[in-house]
Amino acid sequence: MAIDDKIEIDLELEKRQIQNAYRSLLRAAKKVTEKEELKKIRKAFEFSLEAHKNDRRKSGELYIFHPISVARIVADEMGLGSTAIICALLHDTVEDTNVTLKDIEREFGKTVRKVIDGLTKIDEFSENTSSLQAENFKKMLLTLSDDVRVILIKLADRLHNMRTLDSMRYDKQLKIASETLFLYAPLAHRLGLYLIKSELEDLSLKYKEPEVYNEIQLKLQKTADVRQRFIRRFYTPIKKKLQEEGFDFDIAGRTKSVFSIWNKMQKKQVTFEQVYDLFAIRIILNTDLENEKAQCWKVYSIVTDFYHPNPDRLRDWISTPKANGYESLHTTVMSPTGKWVEVQIRTQRMHEIAEKGFAAHWKYKDGKVKDNNLDVWLERIREMLNQDDEDVMEFISDFRLNLFADEIYIFTPNGDIINLPANATALDFAYEIHTQVGNHASGVKVNEKLVPLSSVLKSGDQVEVITNKKQRPRPEWFNYVITGKARSGIRKELKAAEKELAAQGKEILERRFNNLKVNFTSENIDQLQKYYGIDNTLEFYSLIAQGKKDLKKLRDFVVKAGNIQFDKAPLPESDKSGPLQKFISRPNLNKETIIIGQANDKFDYILAKCCTPIPGDPIFGFITINEGIKIHRTNCPNATQLMSNYAYRVINARWESREHKEFSVKLHFTGVDDIGLVNKITTAISKKSNINIKALKFDTNDGVFNGETTIEINDTEQLAGLISALKKIEGVFTVERIKTKDFYNA
Ligand code: MN
Fold first, then answer.
1. Helix or strand or coil: residue 333?
2. I need a surface site. Which of 52, 54, 158, 542 has the fewest CB within 10 A?
3. How many alpha carbons lie under 13 Å from residue 645 in its C-beta half-sphere?
């Protein structure tokens, strides 16, 4: 009883903990949703609680704590509304419990179903290889086109999993941390979720390189006091002046994250002590929308009255926000102690967007917020995703390239602004305008001057692309571009060109083979490739098309004994022309219904008696020693043996067309002995038009009837119809097409 009591108490405790967790979620939700929405959230919570009631996480805690935590991140840290909170509560129900998407739709409606569906498709913790992970990631991005909440909830889910990674096995920790660093942190960055991005990075580092993480963490703590003193001394005069001018503002120093310090140490090969800018000063203004820009510049002017700015490091992301929506005014100024200090000036609204990213845009949507930048970005991703023939790893690396890049702003001839990553070239710009503009770009004018396609652009350049229909991408173009869009455009075009070239080469080779009376089989092509020393068939063909492979040697090659192989079996000494030529020299005029080999060549053939193929049967040709090519059905009892032991004598064959020609088929019946049965069978056969009975024999044994008939028939379709008609006759047990095993005597 004592043990039972203990469990009782634990369950009670858990219940209370669940209620507490739920109540904190409600508090967070109240800030982002209307009152009537809270009922729906309660419903989702209860639904999830019931669905997960028997599930526990690796740590041993009840599973429900996970969806509640994810919902809290969604509400608190991303500022998303009730739909997202509901979806977060339900996010693992379809994946991990008996709940179906139908249940979700019935209880919570279509929108929630769509988001849950998107989340369920991203299968997270399966033991997969890197390429599968990449595939997964691509799938996730695909859902962007449906509802961006899928991605945001996925990020919240990942964040909570990272926060609770302790209970996972070591190898899993490494895998999840790497994946987070590789994909999720950049994605958070791109969506403008700076706080989440930094936390994901820090947590990843903590699990991937615990010593490094702990060391930097410790040094940050040790230097905190000195830093605080410096920060205060730096901003005190500014603060005083801003107050005098009547600004409503906050000012604070912001320490860089562990990860970004480590990143800087790595990149610049310096020690912790040498990373001078461990913090930035941030000034956040409370002002109305109309005065935002003017106020920020006024503050800039005050700051630079006290400290001298570095003109190269002024960043105006207010006039031209980043593609992810980030708005802020950054300057780097010289402090009295000789240190460069970054100062960030922004409004409360800009700040919220900077920290919570995309979600904050929704909140300000009613105001005059320019969120079309983000739409442009989402549109670009959709475009990339639609090129689905691409290699997934290539896609991911292009995508990451775009995620990390800094941006420049280029003007079109009409004065429109185009965002490009820093170091983008004129050709990147052309591809950014349109893939076809890129493909046909023959020249570029930057600020009215003609420049090479490879010219690197700088912010503020005005660029005009000159196109020429005859222009095509060349392989060296890869060296001219840095954007994913341009790379994939060039890659696609080059692949298409190579395919076209290969098709031409294949045709040329096929013609030469025919002239030399050699069959165009993959086996022969293989031999030839070996002779020329080229592994890749497509490459081989395109080299031929370009005239880079001398086909004059082909004749030598064919003439040399043993190169082109059609028959390794002993041949009559007298047969010097080889087995194939023998058949080519005897074209058959009567029965042109089978195409043999890969070319459209027609050889003489005979139909094997063991399986008596008829049009429609899957077939293959077999080169016999004395009887030429024999056609067998692929399911012929002899086929396996023939194909495995004499593979080099097997050639492709297919029926050219269905001509009305008769083929013999043998059928075997069994049934009960009945006087009328023979009559019924012959009537059934002759009722079908075009079927002639050539032979029929019956015998009976102890009341069991055995029959065999040879009929003439057009094709498999007709045969199938006949067999099913025969099977319907009362007293007939089985009807089977006869195949004999005895191949050589057949
Ligand atoms: Mn989850």
1. strand
2. 54
3. 6
Contact 426, 446 (CB under 8 A): yes
Contact indicator for 83, 149 with CB cutoff of 8 Å: yes
Token representation of residue 465? 């692309």
- Provide the β-strand partners of residue 732: 671
Measured between its terminal Cα atoms, the distance across the chain in Å is: 83
Cα angle 133, 135, 140 (rounded to 5 degrees) comes to 95
Which residues are catalytic, by number?
A: 95-96
Spatial neighbors of 449 by CB under 8 A, at least 6 apart, are none
d(CA 109, CA 119): 16
pLDDT at 569: 32
pLDDT confidence of residue 565: 46
Q: Domain ranges in the chain?
A: 17-208, 216-364, 579-655, 663-737
- Torsional class of 176: left (φ above 0), alpha (ψ -120 to 50), beta (otherwise): alpha
Q: What's the token pair of residue 497?
A: 């060109």
Give me ligand 1 centre to Cα 493, in Å.
40
pTM for the structure as a whole: 0.55
Dihedral angle computed from the Cα positions of residues 109, 114, 119 and 121, in that order, rounded to the nearest 10 degrees: 130
Q: Cα separation of 162 and 176, whole Å?
A: 8
Q: How far is the CA of 705 from the centre of ligand 1 (A)?
A: 67
Beta strands 449-451 and 619-623: pairing type? unpaired
Q: Which contacts (CB < 8 Å, 24+ apart) does range 561-564 have?
A: 563/527, 563/531, 564/518, 564/524, 564/527
Pairing between strand 594-596 and 463-467? Answer: unpaired
**How far does residue 630's CA lie from ligand 1's centre (Å)?**
61
Question: Can you read off the two tokens belonging to residue 482?
Answer: 């840095």
CATH number of 17-208: 1.10.3210.10
Q: How far is the CA of 402 from the centre of ligand 1 (A)?
A: 27
**Run means of pLDDT, 10 residues per run, the chain, 746 residues:** 50 87 91 84 94 86 93 88 91 89 93 86 51 60 66 90 89 82 81 87 92 91 87 92 94 88 84 74 92 94 92 86 83 85 92 75 46 56 57 62 67 79 90 91 87 87 88 89 88 87 86 77 78 80 80 68 42 37 37 60 74 80 76 75 65 66 79 76 76 77 78 81 84 78 39
- Cβ contact 152:188 at 8 Å: no
CATH number of 216-364: 3.30.460.10
Instruction: Tell which residue, 271, 286, 354, has the closest CA to residue 318.
Output: 354
One-letter amino acid of 516: L
**What is the CATH superfamily name and number for domain 663-737?**
ACT domain (3.30.70.260)
CA of 360 to the centre of ligand 1 (A): 23
Please give the distance, rounded to the nearest whole angstrom, from the Cα atom of residue 7 to the centre of ligand 1: 27
